[in-house]
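Q: How would the structure tokens look for this protein?
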Amino acid sequence: MDTSNSELQSLAVRMERLEKQYHWLKSEVVTEKLVLVDSDGKTRATLHMTEEVPSLILYDSNGNVRAILRVSAEGPSLHLLDSTTKAGLELSVGEASPDVSLFDANGKQRLSLDIAPHESGLPSLTMRDPNGKPSVVARALENSPGVCLFDTKNPDGNTSVQITMESEGPNLICVKEGKVLWSAP
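A: Here is the predicted structure in token form.
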């Protein structure tokens, strides 16, 4: 089979072009923002840097943000959002502790569950009023099964009601400014 010089040159050019395409396909892509669109051209996901924080944002078919995954200096967080309001769920892991928060339709934090680092790693549940201020704070007790309800107007925890299960049965203690006011039985 006799191959002309021009055919060999053409094959060499094609081979070089294919090698460049292959090299590009196996290389990394460096960009500040990546947008994923559906067959209708609607944005369904973005991956980008905002304020030096990588963020993955997922959209529903109507263009509403439904999920956000971020990794900041404080730690990772995942936000799951309602399509029509600001209601949602946030999961985060910070240096101090993990946290789960629920937000109402106005975007106000209404409930949070965390591990209190200052309480020897004991879990804490905080319910908030419509203004976002704590109204009920419940914490596990360190030395016995039970729960402690704190006066939210006294953030130092000096006023509380403790409900515990002792070997003799349930126990209720009311504390104000660190002193037992009342207990039963």
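The CA atoms of residues 3 and 21 lie 26 Å apart.

The first strand starts at residue 33 and ends at 37.

Upvote if useful.
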